[in-house]
């Protein structure tokens, strides 16, 4: 599994050119991409500046020598590269397994190109086996949970080490089991319309390129 993540991470950084402004996603697959980018920065003197999507990725970027900036300096990125929890046949995604979905969506939306990197296990025909992460404000989260139940989801407040999980934005996550998500656009729209929902982990029509590990090699899926 780690070898697959490493392969797609190394493949993805080939899309990064000198002078680019780069969005760095979050998660264990992204770790290898950040590491590989750091190696290019060091070996080739590649001149890039990056905005990261989580405090953990910030630390990795610093560790691997990638200069960081923020949206007060630049509002458009040339490329963003991120992992995913599920990718369907239409390249619609579920993200947020690590709780970074809000910043990830802001960064992906600010990028001219958004490339997704996954191992083979993330490819599905229909989204929904992975419970959909939904970021919500803490106040009144119980109300939002009840409304999501009425929409057919089974929300579970995310915990970590016995405590409520708090995102980098100070919010909570509801992991919402839906049987199958056949219409990601409709599901996203129903959820985002609820007062208290900050963002959903459905990334709809955001990527046209997914790099997937394939038997010790990588494969590019395009739309
Ligand atoms: O919030 C986390 C992100 O959406 C990750 O990109 C996603 O969960 C995939 O992570 P991993 O590469 O660790 O499976």
TrEMBL record:
Primary enzyme class: isomerase
Keyword hit for Metal-binding: no
Pathway where it operates: Carbohydrate degradation; pentose phosphate pathway; D-ribose 5-phosphate from D-ribulose 5-phosphate (non-oxidative stage): step 1/1
Residues of the active site: 104
Protein name (database record): Ribose-5-phosphate isomerase A
GO biological process: D-ribose metabolic process; pentose-phosphate shunt, non-oxidative branch
Family per record: Belongs to the ribose 5-phosphate isomerase family.
